[in-house]
Specification:
Order of helices and strands: EEEEEEEEEEEEEEEEEEEEEEEEEEEEEE
Radius of gyration: 44 Å
Oligomer: single chain
Number of helices: 0
Largest sheet: 6 strands, mixed
Number of strands: 30
Shape: rod-shaped
Strand content: over 45%
Distance between the termini: 160 Å
Structural class: mainly beta
Helix content: under 10%
């Protein structure tokens, strides 16, 4: 009789698996500031890092309980850039600082790719764990998308850190004077990489704003394409400036502010008197005519630096005025003196430095081609 054989097998209880993905750094959601053109976080500086974790538990104890992620086989990370209907594979780097992403020896993933708000990164993980006791392979999958949100808070304004009208006294030495403007977003200044500026001046003849001309606008020193312009006050008579500022991310958002710069003498008074011999005697040989200009601070020292002063003298009120000349002190000899003599003067403010222009319109220039400048009276002489 033939032997009948039957087999038997050992049944092992099922292994227990706990698979997860650990976030080691960075963020799966980026924020992008369209105004500044910056990412938070910037993955080139703070990459997004994840690492698989596979905890295996064996009821029989043949396999010690622990994390076996590094022992997984056939591990594949698949990263794609999704841009509308376009799906583009990302570039795997050879080190943590190269490529769009990098996978190390324990299957940890480092993502260095920044994406815009219209894009996203699709991340897929596949890995296998082989159980040698039961000769079984367990498969694990994981998926995640990385998105970018708009964090731009737009509250743009242009601040001119200067009065809307500035009077420059000729009695003060201002020299080269800076005027600053700043473009702000929510009160925070934008630096030069994110803000553009342009300064212009108002042309009174055409009543239009025009670009600053470095050769003809003698008051201009520098900075017409920056946040701070510098002017030479000695050349400022009546100048209106406008600054325009805009975020470089959107040049159509233009903001502007203006200021008036003018040479201003304030309140002053001119007086003329005889320094001596106001009342003539037979022994009087001469007298001295003196002009003074005063303001709130008192007598102005060297008034001829700021005023065109011309003195006049006449023997009596019926006589014609005779010019003694331009200056502040003149001596009148005895032969000109009479009992009813009178002294008068005309004091006119001098302008800022202006080019010397001939009657035909030609501007005088020095050997270097720079205009020759002078100060001129700002009003006409009026006499009785």
């Amino acid at each position: 009789m033939k032997m009948k054989i039957t087999g038997g097998r050992v049944l092992h209880p099922t292994l227990s698996f706990a698979f997860s993905m650990l976030e080691l750094g960075g963020s799966n959601i980026q924020k992008y500031n369209t105004l500044l053109g910056t990412y938070v976080p910037d993955r080139t500086l703070t990459p997004y890092q994840v690492k698989p974790k596979l905890v295996v538990s064996d009821p029989e104890g043949n396999i010690p309980t622990g994390d076996y992620a590094s022992s997984m086989k056939n591990v594949v990370w698949t990263l794609r850039l999704v841009d509308g209907k376009n799906v583009i594979p990302l570039t795997k780097g050879t080190s943590p600082t190269t490529g769009d992403y990098y996978v190390d020896t324990v299957h940890a993933l480092t993502i260095r790719k920044n994406v815009s708000q219209t894009q996203m990164i699709s991340v897929d993980f596949y890995g296998e764990y082989y159980n040698p006791v039961r000769n079984e392979t367990s498969k694990f999958n994981w998926h995640k998308t990385l998105n970018t949100a708009d964090e731009t808070e737009t509250n743009i304004n242009l601040e001119l850190r200067f009065p809307s009208k500035m009077n420059f006294s000729p009695f003060k030495n201002y020299g080269k004077f800076p005027i600053e403007a700043v473009l702000l977003n929510g009160g925070v200044p934008l630096d030069s990489t994110h803000a553009g500026y342009k300064w212009q001046t108002f042309e009174a003849g055409t009543k239009t704003w025009r670009d600053i001309d470095e050769s003809s606008d003698l008051w201009y020193v520098g900075g017409k394409d920056g946040s701070q312009i510098t002017v030479d006050v000695d050349f400022v008579q009546h100048t209106v400036l406008r600054v325009m500022g805009w975020p470089k991310s959107d040049p159509t958002q233009i903001y502007s502010a203006s200021t008036l710069l003018r040479r201003w003498y304030g309140q002053w008074e001119d007086t003329y008197e005889f320094a001596y011999a106001k009342f003539l005697q037979s022994t009087t040989r001469q007298t001295e005519a003196v002009a003074k200009v005063t303001n709130r601070q008192g007598d102005i020292k060297n008034p001829q630096q700021y005023f065109d002063i011309q003195l006049f003298y006449r023997e009596d009120e019926k006589s014609a005025w005779k010019s003694l000349g331009n200056g502040t002190e003149f001596v009148v000899q005895r032969e000109q003196l009479t009992g009813d003599h009178q002294l008068a003067g005309v004091c006119r403010e001098l302008s800022a430095y202006q080019p010397v222009e001939l009657s035909g319109g030609t501007v005088l220039a020095d050997s270097d081609g720079k205009p020759i400048v002078a100060r001129f009276p700002t009003s006409e002489i009026e006499t009785d």
